[in-house]
Amino acid sequence: MKITMVKKVFADGSPCKKCGEIEEKMRAAGQLARIDQTLVADEADNQSEGMQLAARYNIDRAPFFIVERDDQPAQVYTVYFKFVKEVLDAETSEDEEIAEIMNDVDLDFL
After folding, report:
1. Measuring CA to CA, how many Å separate 31 from each of 1, 22, 24, 102?
2. Around Cβ 108, how many Cβ atoms within 10 Å?
3. Helix, strand, or coil here: 45?
4. Which one-letter DSSP state was computed for residue 11?
5. For residue 32, which phi and psi values (nearest 5 degrees)?
6. 87, 47, 45, 44: which is closest to 64 by C-alpha?
7. Residue 95: its pLDDT value, please?
8. CA-CA distances (angstroms) from residue 17 to 70, 93, 100, 107?
């Protein structure tokens, strides 16, 4: 299995707030070691690897995760807690999942 995390950088070079929050949660939980590669969707560069992946998978928010397993189509996750539960087999609370889904105002669109 290969896991790619795509986070966003704004055209002015500043990082996406939500991406930083998710990355910090993953660091605190020891989950970053499970990520094989981290790519950047750079608003200033439509040819950046992250922007190309967002276009390929028709993703319009960041961060997102692409999970590739042998002989299966890639799965894309735009909800961190769903990714954690289904891919990393970690426990999440229903309240955390609902809060993330309902808090779309913090999501950064590509």
Report:
1. 15, 11, 10, 23
2. 19
3. coil
4. T
5. -60, -25
6. 87
7. 55
8. 33, 22, 14, 8
C-alpha distances (whole Å) from 91 to each of 42, 72, 83, 99 are: 32, 25, 11, 15
Q: Residue 1's pLDDT band (boundaries 50, 70, 90)?
A: very high
Please tell me the predicted confidence (pLDDT) of residue 86: 92
CA-to-CA dists, residue 6 to 28, 33, 88, 91, 106, angstroms:
19, 15, 17, 22, 16
Amino acid identity for residue 25 in this structure: K
Q: Under CATH, to which class is 2-109 assigned?
A: alpha beta
Q: How far apart are CA 13 and CA 8, in angstroms?
A: 10
Residue among 72, 73, 74 nearest 64 (CA): 74
Mean pLDDT of 65-86: 93
Is 50 exceeded by the pLDDT of residue 105?
no
Q: Quick one: pLDDT at residue 109? A: 60
What is the pairing mode between strands 2-9 and 37-42?
Answer: parallel
